[in-house]
Amino acid sequence: MREDQCRHLGCGCRPLRRVRIFIASDNPSPHNFELARRKAYTARTFRRPSLEWAQQTKDGADLAGQRQLADVIALGGGVPIMSATTPSERGRQRVEPDRR
Question: CA-CA distances (angstroms) from residue 69 to 15, 42, 45, 77?
Fold first, then answer.
């Protein structure tokens, strides 16, 4: 998702910055915030949805060692936010959130 798409949706998020807002249902479990932060970190670090990264790093895969990095998590739900600031970045394919 690009920054301009975030503004259009009204979610107020910005790339490469700290968490600014976290919206949860009534009485969320204590771990929800941490899982959401780690999914976002994984998507941002590998520039792909966290579910796609999880599938590419399964046991036995060439990239399986990436799962040992601090703060990454092999769960779906994290989507990278792309800011189209350079001509090469403007041509990137749009990334849709995983709605499972």
Answer: 21, 10, 11, 18
| pTM value surpassing 0.70 | no
How far is it, in rounded angstroms, from Cα 35 to Cα 39? Answer: 6
What is the C-alpha to C-alpha distance for residues 89 and 87, in angstroms, rounded to an integer? 5
Q: Measuring CA to CA, which residue among 1, 44, 2 is closest to residue 19?
A: 44
What end-to-end distance do the CA atoms of the chain give, in Å? 17
Residue with the two structure tokens 């001509």: 87
Residue reference for tokens 């936010």: 81
Nearest of 18, 89, 80 to residue 52 by alpha carbon: 80
Q: Report the phi/psi class of residue 76: left, alpha or beta, with left for phi > 0 and alpha for psi in -120 to 50.
A: beta
Within 1-100, where are the H helices? 3-9, 32-46, 50-56, 87-90
Asked if the model's pLDDT at residue 16 lies above 70, the reply is no
